[in-house]
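Intended use. Records such as the ABC transporter permease entry shown here are meant for training and evaluating sequence-to-structure methods. They are not intended to support clinical decisions.
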Amino acid sequence: MFRYYFLLGIKSLRRNPALTALMVLTLAIGVAASVSTLTILHVMSGDPIPQKSDRLFTAIIDPGQKEGYTPGEEPNDHQFTYKDVTNLLASQQGVRRAAMYGIQTTLEPERKDLGAISMEGLAVTADTFPMFEIPFLHGQGWQATEDKSSADVVVLSKQMAEKIFGATNPVGKKVRMLKGDFTVVGVSDNWAPKPKFYIFNGREGAFMDEPDFLLPMSNAIRRETAHSGSMGCTSRSEPGWEGRLNSECTWFHFWFELKSPAQRADLQNYIDSYVAEQFKLGRFQRQAKNRLFNVREFLVEMRVIGDDSRLSAWLAFGFLLLCLVNTVGLLLAKFSVRASEVGVRRALGASRREIFTQFLIETAVVGLVGALLGVLLAMGALQLIALQSKALAVVAHMDWAMLGLTFFMSVSAAMLAGLLPTWRACQVTPAIQLKSQ
């Protein structure tokens, strides 16, 4: 019987084609608006490393002086000083510890046809690779010994390696950058967690592409490589590179990997003890609260998902509700002209339940057609959004989960809108309709 009613629903699309087209278009526009907004929110609020996001922690500590500080005010600088990352790396806390900062440089390829290549990358410590589970197409990352020796080694991204060397395996080859020759030890394979939690340079930066390269942080420090990104200073520093390293200026990022989330309290105690020890040495004079965050908590703290995104989602669903109200009116008009048909069916023995099922399946057919059109409109809307910036281009794409949600929302919305018109159709009195014929 379902198949029969479904075929009737398809045939009913040809009745009042203008009214049917208006219903489908109204439903499709409402679904497309809500799904495209929800898709962006879905990508932005995703877990970038779900297998261990509850075991990776960063902290917010405040090494600043008392000047300009309001007691009780929570610090919001998520970066670290060089002195602190050096101490934390030697702390032996957790399973792994990773420090990093962003850098920019120009690569001088051997191929003269390429010319100089501008690159954005990271200066990191060796634990970064296993901590963040960076996949490799060729080779591997360096070890702690290369960190200690400040080795001239580099890991290239897949895209950058192909740009420089083509499709060949470049491990062991040299690249010239930062006024030195670096040996390629590995090529990462499409490592781009979204949002980009490990190094945060603003909300838009959380959705940028993967770094072009990674090299030892100790090497970048030895070469006096300036950072790329924000830097916070709570006091004046001495001139020169050594003055910057010894200052209270923050531009490093730091992460701990714990064996289990249960060790969080121990890490918090260590951070508190460390800050208390540094206070005795004349630092951390503000005595602000030290806060610890896992990956998900850190993304919330950094407001990667802003209130404007949530507001946009609510407005989109409000628009969908408005479309549903219009669809209800159109379905009432569509079903009202079929009162005589319902009267004849009831007189021939059809129950109200059968009438209800038939008309509800017809509305589901409208929902399916609306879903197909809604998917096309949503994909078009996402393409337009992606043109606005690189960050939006990363998040404005529909995956299989959102595609399935589009069909579910469209059919569900159509059936919801069809409940009242279908119920009204079931109330037709056969005798009155037969007398009117």
